[in-house]
Amino acid sequence: MMLRMTLFRGLALLVMTLPTRLLGAGGGGAGIVIVADSRQFTGWKAWWTNLYNESHLWFAIATILIIPSLGLLLGRLTDFLMSKLGINLKSRVLAEH
């Protein structure tokens, strides 16, 4: 029983790690082209979709830089607004007793 399970797991691992070209049907078809329709956009949305269409690498780099920066900006803004409202998040003293 243990040998059968080990053999089954080994075959499952082999099937999962085979390249998709070996598992796919057909010969040499054309590759898939992934594009975003940017005709209806203007401004920064048009820039963003054109960046995606032109270079997935630069799109990924820009995304990696923009998301943490916006998170930091929104976190700082929220912290500032809460301190102005009188909510102290730097202290760990519980208000309810």
Topology (elements, then pairings):
Layout: H1 2-17, H2 20-23, H3 44-54, H4 56-85
Pick out its properties.
single chain; 97 residues; mainly alpha; flat
Describe the overall structure:
By secondary structure, the protein is an all-alpha fold. The protein has a domain at 41-90. It contains four helices and no strands. α3 packs antiparallel against α4 (56-85). The chain is flat. The model has no long low-confidence stretch (mean pLDDT 84).
Element order: H for helix, E for strand: HHHH
Cα radius of gyration in angstroms: 26 Å
Largest β-sheet summary: none
Q: Proportion of β residues?
A: under 5%
Tally of contiguous helical segments = 4
Structural class, by secondary structure, is: mainly alpha
- The count of strands amounts to 0
The percent of residues in helical segments reads 55-70%
- Average pLDDT, rounded to a whole number, is 84
How widely separated are the two ends?
60 Å
Gross morphology is flat
Low-confidence stretches: none
